[in-house]
Structures are given as structure tokens and as C-alpha cells.
Amino acid sequence: MRHIHFMNLRTLDLNLLVVFDALMRERHVTRAAAAIGLSQPAFSNALTRLRARLGDELFIRTPDGMKPTAWAIELSGPISAALHDIQTALNGAHFDPRTSAHRITVATPDYAAMTLFPKLIVALQDQAPGIVLQTITPSQHWGEYLDTQRADMALLNWPNPPERFSSQMLFQEDWVCVMRQDHPLAAGTFSLDQFSAVNHLLVSPQGDRRNWVDDALARHARTRHIAYTMPAYGMAPMILGTTDFVLTCPASVAKVCYEYGGLSVIDCPLKPPDKMQSIHMVWHTKLGNHPVHRWFRALLQDVSAVELINDH
């Protein structure tokens, strides 16, 4: 591991650490420059200076963006924490959502976003019109996104994350089945034999060809035919409305599908091992007392509570 000597640190332009932190979050020079209000040439110049000062390439250009070196990853946690501590100290009690221009990035599967974010965005426009909200959907390594603060928070089923993260449940919900209104099974409850005999639509962000439904069917010596697999729920209402496919999904997704029109929601004849699908907001403990994050977490809780009340 390289070490920065005390004299080098004294002469280091600390603004370069802001450049480092932005690129660690964005992994893209143009987006990182825009995030901190620099032109791309100025940002690239600052990155060149930082590389020379630290004696490391720090970020390697790849087809997928700027990949951090091993040392950059090692530096990212302490640098990000220090910058957040400074920002928190400067903001202190002066945070005012009505005038704030903070940017908040939430890592979330699409179904949590489609359930909560329409009402969340309305609340933000009303209470904090200057705050910029971004959602991303990592394919994996959710913890890395929180460690490097590419995401300020994650929404997912993660009730017991590692100790460096805090977790709070927003809501729990059942799994149900969605199909078009004139589907042969839409009349009411149906048997496992009927369920396993129809064509199924599977949503799998990682591209897996099975989920807990297939494991549950296997315990009953049954299988199902998955006719179509897709990575997100967004197109599900349109596909279900024009096919005989059945989608097994969280109740919040079913509600959105139902509101799309022409679809029916039926109780699922199977139950997952955990009985209920839960969504937790997860954040790094070093952001626990950050005034912006405290306010945003409270707002998200309020929106979740209203959504649950409206569902019952």
C-alpha cells in the first residue's frame, strides 16, 4: 500500500479529493464533472494532477466506464467519509429542504421505485423542489455502491446487512398473481395443477431462469413453464394484457399493474419461505446523522406509510 507523507498531505489541494469522490461515485468523467460543477477539461486536468500527486493511475478507462484501481478502492471509504463529515459540519442545523440543491442517489430494484417513487417525487416537488433524485439498479454488489457512496441508500430485502450498514423496514407485502381479466384462471382461486400448467412471465434482474416459485413447486413435485423472462417489471402490464401469461409478483407491483387496466389480481397458491416480501432502506452508518439523509429517510418513511394506508 502507498502512503501519503505528512508534508505531501499538507500541500495537497483538497479540492482534488472532491474530484476523486465524484468519479468514484459516477465512474464517468462527464457525469462526475457535471455533478460537481466543473467543465470536462477542468475535471480531467484535476484528475491528472491527483494521479501525479498520489503516484497511481486511480481510474482506468474501460468500455463500461472508469474502473477504480485497487488503491483507489482502498482510499474511497476514508475520503468519502471525511468529505461527508466536512459537509455535515458545514451544513449543521442550516439544512433547509426548501432551498437545498442536494443530489440523492438511491439504488433500488424497479418494483420498489414504481411503488414508492411517484408519490415520493410529488412530495419532493412540494417540500424540496431543488433536490435532485436519481435511481440506479445495480446488477450486484449493493454493498459496494453504499461503501463508495455511488448510492446514498438502497431499497431492497436486506433485513440484516453487515454492521457497517443500518437497515429499517419500510413495508411488507404478500406475493400475488396477475393476469388479464378474461384469463381462464381469473375467476378466482386456482389449484397448483392449474397454476403449474399455464405459461408464466418471470422478472429476473440477473437473468436467472427460476426463483422461489420454482423451488416451492419442486417441493410439491411440480414444475412450471416460463415462457418469457425480462429484467424489470415496467413492461409487464402490456405483456400480460395481450397474452395468457401469469406473473407472480409483490402486491405493490400488482397494484400498479391493476391500475394500468384490463388485469386481474388473484391470491398466489404458493407462499415464499419468508412468507412476506419486505423492503428495507439500507444506508451506511457514516451517513446516519447527516441532516439531508435524516430528512430524506423520514420523508421516505412517511411516503411508505401513506402508500400502505391507501392499500388497505
Describe this structure in words.
Helices cover 44% and strands 21% of the residues. The N terminus is likely disordered. Strand 8, helix 9 and strand 9 form a beta-alpha-beta unit. Helix 2 packs across helix 4, helix 2 crosses helix 5 and helix 3 crosses helix 4. The longest helix has 22 residues. The strands form three sheets. It has a five-stranded mixed β-sheet. Strands 9-8-10-7-11 form a five-stranded mixed β-sheet. It is an alpha/beta fold and 312 residues long. The termini are far apart.
Relevant terms:
312 residues, alpha/beta, Arc Repressor Mutant, subunit A, D-Maltodextrin-Binding Protein, domain 2, 12 strands, disordered N terminus, Transcriptional regulator, LysR family, DNA binding, DNA-binding transcription factor activity, transcription regulation
Helix-strand topology string: HHHHEEHEHEHEEEHEHEHEHEEH
Give the rounded overall mean pLDDT. 87
**Fraction of residues in β-strands:** 15-25%
Query: What is the approximate shape?
Result: elongated
SSE layout:
Blueprint: H1 6-11, H2 15-26, H3 29-35, H4 40-54, E1 59-62, E2 65-68, H5 70-91, E3 103-107, H6 110-127, E4 132-136, H7 142-147, E5 153-156, E6 165-173, E7 175-180, H8 192-197, E8 199-203, H9 212-219, E9 225-230, H10 236-241, E10 246-250, H11 251-260, E11 263-267, E12 277-284, H12 291-311
Parallel strand pairs: 3-4, 3-5, 8-9, 8-10
Antiparallel strand pairs: 1-2, 5-12, 6-12, 7-10, 7-11
Helix pairs in contact: 2-3, 2-4, 2-5, 3-4, 6-11, 6-12
InterPro entries: LysR-type_TF, LysR_HTH_N, LysR_subst-bd, WH-like_DNA-bd_sf, WH_DNA-bd_sf, YidZ_PBP2
Protein name: Transcriptional regulator, LysR family
Keywords: DNA-binding, Transcription, Transcription regulation
